[in-house]
Amino acid sequence: MEGREKSRASAVADGAGRLRYVDALRGIAALLVLWLHVSNGYRGLGTHSAWLDGFIANVDVGRIGVVVFFLISGFVIPFSIRPDSAAPVGAFVIRRVFRIYPAYWLSVPLAAFVFYWGIGAVFPASALVANFTLLQSVFGLPNAEGVYWTLIVELAFYALCIALLLTRSLFDARRIAILASVLALAHVFAMFMLWLGRPVVSVGAAFWPLNLSVMLWGALYRLDTTGAADRVSSMLLRALGVLFVIALPIGAALAVHTRVVYTIAYALAFVVFLAGMRVVRIETKLTDWLGRISYSIYLFHPIVFQPIYLWLMGQPTDSPFRTQHLATYLAANVALTLVVASLVHRFVEKPAIRLGHRLASAWEKRAESTAVRARTISPPVPANAPAIAEAAAG
Fold this sequence. Notes:
Layout lengths: L1 H10 L8 H22 L8 H9 L2 H16 L11 H28 L9 H9 L14 H19 L6 H23 L7 H23 L5 H24 L5 H20 L5 H8 L1 H20 L12 H51 L8 H9 L1
């Protein structure tokens, strides 16, 4: 079993380095989220951009970006775990902590200021402390920034990956396919009960299994494209794809009308993901850069657009600053966000990532040394061992 686990892991290890077309998708996803939030936030400025505003109202481009991020996480995260390491779980946790938290920690007080304290709203110290853990929703406390909800889903996926690793299922395509199917059906059941007027969970909770299923689909897709999936798991991969892209939007349109935009966004996200993976693999220096700073784009774009919005609202209603086309505000926010994201990536993300890799490597080496010592050190042999052996033989 252990040998098969390692062989499955090695089957996808060829993508251990950065994949440029995946970085392109990361950059596109981050910009889609920015597009939605800026468009929604600046909607009340009296801009002459009805067509653009209407498009955003009917196509949830931000959710498309988020789901693309989920698919990329499934495609990448499980295969960053090294099952042949002496300490795969510890090293994985260290690398992920130093990848996610430092830039996030920087964003928390800034978000609390621009969205709460700076405008006289209440954001208690307990909520601030909880936000630093990224477990604020567990304690029923508010997010300092709305986009944090996706990071909590990411943490849940990391925990799921660890559980799958410990059960030797992380690179077992059939088990991944079955689990993804079960989670997708759990979402379908929850939404069906909502349609019947007998909800078993809240709408937000109903999307948890769907999001985890999407991430597992990304992992299964990678196993399938590298030849590590059997016929059954490949069939389930395609069946789930049909469910996500066709069945869920149709079902939502017929049954739960208020969730149609959500499910269409999931379907379109799959289209974007597959197009970027199979049809048009974008590999340019610009998209390489956007992919590298995409996490900071995601975290800091609300921190950029909120002060600008508040300043604009303080201007006279006939001011030229308040009557520009929505695309002008969008372009300005993109430019400023890219500057901020570049600085955060250079001075926070990159040093933290390097430190995380060094600490993870040290953790693995220490575990390997401990394992070697345990194998080489044997119990002391008594001085009269020959006599004891001869007596036992007699």
